[in-house]
Amino acid sequence: MDSGTLGIIFDAMPMLIEGVKLTVIYSIAAIIPATIVGLIFALLKLSSLGFLRRIGEVYVHVFRGLPLLVVIFYIYFAVPHVLPMHAWFGDSYRFIAAIIALTLNEGAYITEIIRAGILSIDHGQTEAAYSIGMNKFQAMRFIILPQAFKRMIPPLMNQFIQTIKDTSLLSAISVAELTRQGQIYISTSFAALQIWTAVAIMYLIVILSLTAISTKLERRWQIDKR
């Protein structure tokens, strides 16, 4: 790179670093409730009651079937036509809409991750829990989920990485994450090649770092590969 290119990237770096911070914040703010939502709907899909299973199935089919960008637009632009979201939340609604959209989208995928993790535990574990006097909730809480969680770590980390990439779509509603910060800087500097290269590298740094953490967690927890 010549000095001019490096100068442009150096000048843009404060904005891009702020974008990285917001990207991580939005990802964490979405993945935590998405995991809770995923657990709830995974348990619904595993329920012995047919109508509860159907609720879980409808949720997963709807939000895995819709493009995330459509969900973002629907929550940010369409919902306020039914509910006075902007009057209730003001400028904060942009943040709220972004988190809700990411949560609903990522939660649908996490539902299947958790369901598969639970089903991977041998049914004999549940029967053993019942034999020592545990009820269904206690068996799930103390026996099944702790074992299943270890097996869920790799796919959950992969989903977190996907969430980070998905935050780039929030730029469509002017959320100032990394992609949006790049767009803003390019609009005044016209240095598309330099800035998008820097943005791509910063995404790679974050994602490769998380991949390394996932690998370490997998080894530390000694994930059962059987």
Provide structural commentary:
The chain has 226 residues and is mainly alpha-helical. It has a single domain, classed as MetI-like (MetI-like fold, Orthogonal Bundle). Helices cover 81% and strands 0% of the residues. It contains nine helices and no strands. Helix 1 packs across helix 5, helix 1 packs across helix 9 and helix 8 (178-189) runs antiparallel to helix 9. It starts with a helix and ends in a 6-residue tail after the last helix. The model has no long low-confidence stretch (mean pLDDT 90).
Secondary-structure blueprint of this entry?
Elements: H1 3-45, H2 50-65, H3 68-78, H4 85-89, H5 93-119, H6 123-131, H7 136-166, H8 178-189, H9 192-220
The fraction of residues in strands falls at under 5%
- Whole-Å distance between the termini? 49 Å
Indicate the radius of gyration in whole angstroms.
21 Å
**Number of separate helices:** 9
CATH architecture label: Orthogonal Bundle
The count of domains is: 1
Residue share in helix = over 70%
CATH class, anyone?
Mainly Alpha
Characterize the biggest β-sheet. none
Q: Which fold name is given in CATH as the topology? A: MetI-like fold
List keywords for this structure.
mainly alpha; 226 residues; 81% helix; MetI-like fold; single chain
Q: TL;DR of this structure?
A:
By secondary structure, this protein is an all-alpha fold.
